[in-house]
Structure formats: structure tokens, C-alpha cells
Amino acid sequence: MGLTQRLVKVLVGSIILLSVTCRSRSWKHDYGEALSKSILFFEGQRSGKLPPTQRIIWRKDSALQDGALLIPHHNHFSHRKVDLVGGYYDAGDNVKFIFPMAFSTTMLAWSVVEFGKFMGPDLKHAIDAIHWGTEYLLKATSIPGFVFAVVGDPYADHNCWQRPEDMDTPRPAFAVSRDHPGSEVSAEIAAALAASSIVFRKFHIGYSSRLLKRAIMVFDFADKYRGSYNDSLGRWVCPFYCDFSGYQDELVWAAAWLFKATRLPYYLDYIGQNIHNVRNFGEFGWDSKDAGINVLVSKLLMNSSFISEPFNLNANKFVCAVLPESPSVSVSYSPGGLLFKPGGSNMQHATTFSFLFMVYAGYLKKANKEIDCGNKVIASPSRLKRLARGQVDYILGSNPLNMSYMVGYGPKFPERIHHRGSSLPSVNQQPGHMDCEEGSFYFGSPNPNPNLLVGAVVGGPDIKDSYTDSRADYAHSEPTTYINAPLVGLLAYFKSNPS
Predict the structure, then answer these.
(1) Domains plus CATH for the chain?
(2) What residues does the Glycoside hydrolase family domain cover (predicted)?
């Protein structure tokens, strides 16, 4: 890249930085309100028997027979059925994909580990959200040698617009096994259980120990029987949650969480022996964990400079690839300042990357370090925090449309989100069974959704800051658990550190 091109790139980055900084100063957000609502969203995504404490009351019990129908093509169970009731619907459909469910649970736990001290009364609800996930992950790993990865027929479900309370599409359960492995889904479950065990250590030591014991068992299974669930479960997970980055990153990611939970040298050795297998894409989300590994391990080993150096270097590269003013920036930004990457559900990148920035900023501050991105661009801890806050503020309404992308927050927010339960009359309003044909009418209706899925953050606008409030535009109007989970931690921090 020539000098002129670099200067233009820095100038464009500086303009974006200036616009984001100016908006952040001129807008005030109630981060506490947004935090409460971001956690409440998870209650709207619950599957199974709902507790008396359920606060989103238009949702009712659903999928109470999950686990009754097992697919026998390679899963030779001695059990006639397995209890797979519970867990979360990952997005606006009614399938339970355990890979993104586990990642969302990991991120909820990491949010509490890092920022739980700022949550106040919302800490209890955050822990409840984690517990709802871990209870299901324990069920999904309850039979030695098998890990359940999907419940529900995604093709039948996606062709049917129906309330979860009314589901009459098939609910088969698919598992990976020794002969048909799925290391990525198994290792992500291990990471979620290990991270959650750290959370519960302060509140319920017995439950914490149970989670950690299961995490160790599932990690051993994932590592010993290596292979991708793409190959084992094929059409049931692809293209929905196909693993594009391979399973090596999940194995190291799980080992990092197990090291944090146990401090056993075995897991640190495992990381050192296997990190070379992880491709450094500079990504972080339900599929790719490499940037998260580098940030997490850097913080775990901050007093061991020789061991942590490669992780620090890769984490620094990640930061410089995201900062808009950096000469090595590799992500895009909308004119309004939203971090943007190709594909659907873009807000997942804004929330996960911002979360890593906040965690790494804390590491840099404690280590008294800054990052040199070249061309006199220095990334200080405060700069990382400002970028994260700019993304959070954009989500909450500091954007060209003056629109919050969190349902129920602010005066203007998405009203026609791609979400079955939200878009159909609730059981309270219409108690009779509704089939697919009836649901199609509501899918195509121009009216706002009758039920507010409070706290749901949708996929977001396009790269030009435009947003069409349409159920059909699922890439932009569908909420997901893995968008919200990292946002919980960010909002907790900004609630107590608003300036």
C-alpha cells in the first residue's frame, strides 16, 4: 500500500472516529435500563416448562416432549427417550441449535465474571439466564459418549411460521458420538460449563463443582474423538450453523476456560501444544474463537510475559485490525460509525468485538501498556473503551436514524422483528391452536408485532445505516442470543462507568 493510500485510509478512519466521538458526547443513554432489558430478552427465548418467576408473560410452556424422538441412524441408544426439555431458542425460529446456545451461555458467564460487580440487582437475573443455559447443557451431555447438538427439524421449522407453544413440526434430536464426532459443539459446551462454574463458585459451590466436573468430561470427549459436526450431522446443521473455522479453535478455547477454572498446568500445556492449529482470522463469535482466545489467554497470563507474548501480539493485531484510524484496519464502518462485516446479523460483530475491546482494555490498563498500530496510531485502554461505547451507543439510538435497535428501549425501535412468538397473537390473546397457515397471515402483515420481545437486539441496519423494519428481511430484523450475550457485560460496565 502506497503512502497516499495509507494517508487516505487514516483520514477516513479519523473522520469516522470524530463522528462517533461527537455523537457519544451529545447522546445520553440509560445503560441501566438497557442492561435490565438485555437480560430480560433471554426469558423470551426460553424453551420448556417456564418457572413462576417468568417475567415475559406472553410466552408459555413449549416443546415439553423434546428428547422423545431420537434419530437412530448412528446414535445407538439404549434409552428410549432422553429429557431434552428446556434451553433456548437461538433466534426467531423454534429449533434448538446447541452450538450457538453454548456460546451464548459462555458469553453470559464471561459477562458476569468480568462485569458482574457492576450489575447491581440485575446480577440475579443474569445468573438465572446462565443457569437456564447450563441446566440444558447438562441434559445435552447426560449420556456418556453422546452430545446432543440439535433438537427440531430445521427444514420443517423454517417452513412454518408458528408459535413455539403450538409446535407440531417434528422434533427429532440429533447427537454426535465417538464414531460420529463433533468437537466444536462439544468443546463449546465444555467452555460454557467451565466459565459458568466460575460464576457459581461464589453462590453455589456444589453446583459449580458439578458444572466443572462435566466440563472436564465433555472436553476430554471432544479432544479424544476429534472431528467436525459438519461431517457427522451434515444437513441438520449446515447451512444453519455450519462450522467454517474448524474445531481446533473451540478445543483451545475450552482449554483456556478450564485453565481459568482449575489453574491446572495440563490445560496451559494443552493451549501451548495446540494453539498452532488455530488459524488466526481475527474473528470472534459462535463460529470463530481465535480473537477471544488471544484476549482471554493474554489476561490469564499477564504476569508471564514470555508465555503470553504470542497471545498479546495476536490480540494487538486484532485491535489494530478493528480500530478505524489504524493503517491495518480490515473491517468496515458505516457512515454513522457502526462496525460492519459481511453477512447477516451484523450486530453480533459489533457486540462481540466491543466486548473483547473492553476486556483487553482492562488488561492493558493493569499492565500499563498501549498498542502501537503504526503510522503514529497508538491504541490506549481509554481508546478501546471509547470504541466499545460508540458501538453500544449506536445500538441504543445514537445513529443517523435516531433509532434504537433494542426492542422496547427508546421512543423508536424495530416493531416487525423476524420472530415467531413475537409476531403471532399470544396464547393469552388467542388460546386456540394456530397452525402454519394461520401463522403465514401474520408473517405477511404490515402491522407491528403484537408482543414486545423486550431487550431483543436485531441484526441491524445495512452498511449505509439504512434499516427496513420487515419480518421478511431476517438478515437485519432477526434477534439472536449471541448478539445479546456479550452486550450484557458491556451495558453493565457502562452503567457504572457512564463517562
Answers:
(1) 59-279 (1.50.10.10)
(2) 31-491
